[in-house]
Amino acid sequence: MPEKIAVVTGANKGFGYAIVKGLCEKFIGAVYLTSRDEIRGKQACKDLEKLGYNPIYHQLDVTDEESVTTFCSFIRSQNKKIDLLVNNAGVLFLKDSKEPKYYQAEQTMLVNFFALVDFTEAILPLVNTNGTILNITSSSGHLSRIPSEDLRKRIGDPNLNLEGLKILMKSYLESVKLNRDGADGWGDSPYVVSKVGVNAYTFMLHRRLADKGIVVNCFHPGYVMTDMTKGVGSVTPDQAAEVALRCALQPRGGLYVWHNGATVTWDGPDPRGFIDGKSV
């Protein structure tokens, strides 16, 4: 039987690193730790080797077309296919960030949505039949976080295709550029829009790949203590990774999985209150 392959993006630290560590324990096959920064990625692998694990490193910047092409060519050259893909790479500008509003929106949408989609589409031919794709999302990705009812209907329309979704996400950036994101019903958070886009893509992709038995889910890990949050949070990366691993290794399809393992309805009422006990 060919060796199975798992790939984790954005995995040199934090939550991605914890997922790689967990996969090295529980996934029967090769685990690829990928990162934009090659030096940091290789150091992360060395740190894991000191703990007795054996991940394999490969450079991958999901925002760089050449890097994505190189990675896909490498996987293809192995004459193997990917059994588990975890799309973890992401960015978050905190409320005290000083960068201009449009820059924050553009970079957030580029990394969290457009790059995730383009990389996934590029790697799809190399994902095994009956494989799994897990997109790391957030409570911010719940459809209720978009204020406009009209936008919610358009984004949540099961007949919406990928091109239509991309057009909607680009229209958000246009709204920000014109300083109309609030007036146009998008709200004031690029992170929310990016993760709503990721979730919409998740369910769309799951429907698209159903005949191949490929399961696509999205997972909200909770408020994880990482560099992205400046160390603030309610769960450690290892704690969050435990639930993510269950979702990745024992998947049911087309689900939005919360940090406690519960499944929530993406286009229903805001689930934060009755699941977490408070709004975050």
Automatic annotation (TrEMBL):
Coiled coil regions, renumbered to chain: none
Protein name, entry field: Carbonyl reductase [NADPH] 3
Keyword NADP assigned: yes
Organism domain of life: Eukaryota
InterPro entries for the chain: NAD(P)-bd_dom_sf, Sc_DH/Rdtase_CS, SDR_fam
Family, per entry: Belongs to the short-chain dehydrogenases/reductases (SDR) family.
SUPFAM superfamilies in alphabetical order: NAD(P)-binding Rossmann-fold domains (SSF51735)
Species of the source: Bicyclus anynana
Pfam family, one: adh_short
Keywords from the named record: NADP, Oxidoreductase
GO molecular function: carbonyl reductase (NADPH) activity
Lineage of source species: Eukaryota, Metazoa, Ecdysozoa, Arthropoda, Hexapoda
